[in-house]
Amino acid sequence: MDSVWIEDEKQMKLPVPTKRGFYDALLNRPNDNMVHKNFYYPKTNNQNTFIEAIGDGVKIITNYNVDSIVKENNSWVINGEKRYDILINTTPLDLMPNLLSNIPADALSAFKKLKFNRVTNILWETDGSLNFTWGYIPDPKIGFHRISNTGSIVQPNGKFCTTEVIGNVPYEKLAQEGKKIPFLKNPIDYNVTEHAYVHFDLNYTKSKQKSISYLNSIGLISHGRFGEWEYYNMDVCIKRSIDLAKRLKDEYL
Ligand SMILES: Cc1cc2nc3c(=O)[nH]c(=O)nc-3n(C[C@H](O)[C@H](O)[C@H](O)COP(=O)(O)OP(=O)(O)OC[C@H]3O[C@@H](n4cnc5c(N)ncnc54)[C@H](O)[C@@H]3O)c2cc1C
């Protein structure tokens, strides 16, 4: 595994424990000063409210799948029907070979080496006894690694939470795992996220750089968590989008 993800300051929020911090945590309950220690949640109880507000008044086409990208006379043609001067890609990098043709062999091999993890979530009804926002389960005998107490974030608080496990794990298996945790009552919903986390294997840095260099060389800007193949959370994506917008304005307006 590549250790680049704990060294990159753009990740910004990952806790990188020191030996001292690790030792202190064994003896005490040290105060966590990470930037996301406190956070706001929209009163609508809907995370998307914030994102949708940013897009207010902006012309955005939704429910439109991009199946092909072709460069023609310095402009980009999408699905053979829409033409643009600038193209910013947020499709996961490993899927770009499905959209672009004539990718040179060495770049194509870099795209193909990019690996990612899926994640499987179950939404549970709980008995209402959870008193944390989220927690980790470092127990190999339990088939979830994280519990998010989503019911404690919304107003009024609800008796529900989400469990998470890496990979594509069948519903039936997770429903059984839930029986090992007394406060989980009934599974309500199930979801597998295809692209959840980039995989920092030893090919990571080289393959990512080669893939993005190729897109840069044809003038295609690749952006966002899977467009840049990084472990970015929403705040970093938003900050980088603000920076990108400034750069494009300076360059083109
Ligand atoms: C399980 C999980 C938990 C997370 N938890 C948190 C958290 O607690 N806090 C946090 O800040 N962040 C969290 N994140 C990260 C957060 O979701 C991402 O950082 C953020 O959504 C990335 O934004 P983005 O715009 O780069 O990509 P996305 O939000 O993935 O947007 C990319 C868009 O491109 C569209 N697209 C892709 N290909 C095509 C195509 N061919 N045609 C048309 N449209 C296409 C997709 O439909 C999508 O709308 C989590 C992510 C996961 C997977």
Describe this structure in words.
This protein has 253 residues and is α+β, with helices and mostly antiparallel strands. The chain folds into 2 domains: 122 residues, FAD/NAD(P)-binding domain, CATH 3.50.50.60; 83 residues, Alpha-Beta Plaits (2-Layer Sandwich), CATH 3.30.70. The protein is built from 7 helices and 10 strands. The strands form 3 sheets. Strands 6-7-8-5-9 form a 5-stranded antiparallel β-sheet, with helices on one face. A 3-stranded antiparallel β-sheet has the order 1-2-3, with no helix packed on it. Strands 4-10 form a two-stranded parallel ribbon. Strand 1 and strand 2 form a beta hairpin. Helix 4 crosses helix 6. The longest helix has 19 residues. Flavin-adenine dinucleotide binds next to strand 9 and helix 7.
Number of strands: 10
Compute the gyration radius: what is it?
21 Å
Question: Mean of residue pLDDT?
Answer: 92
In whole angstroms, the N-to-C terminal distance is: 43 Å
Helix and strand sequence = HHEEEEHHEEEEHEHEH
Secondary structure class reads alpha+beta
Question: In summary, what is this structure?
Answer:
The chain is of the alpha+beta class and 253 residues long. It contains seven helices and ten strands. Helix content is 27%, strand content 21%.
Keywords:
alpha+beta; binds flavin-adenine dinucleotide; 253 residues; 5-stranded antiparallel beta sheet; 3-stranded antiparallel beta sheet; 7 helices; FAD/NAD(P)-binding domain; 21% strand; globular
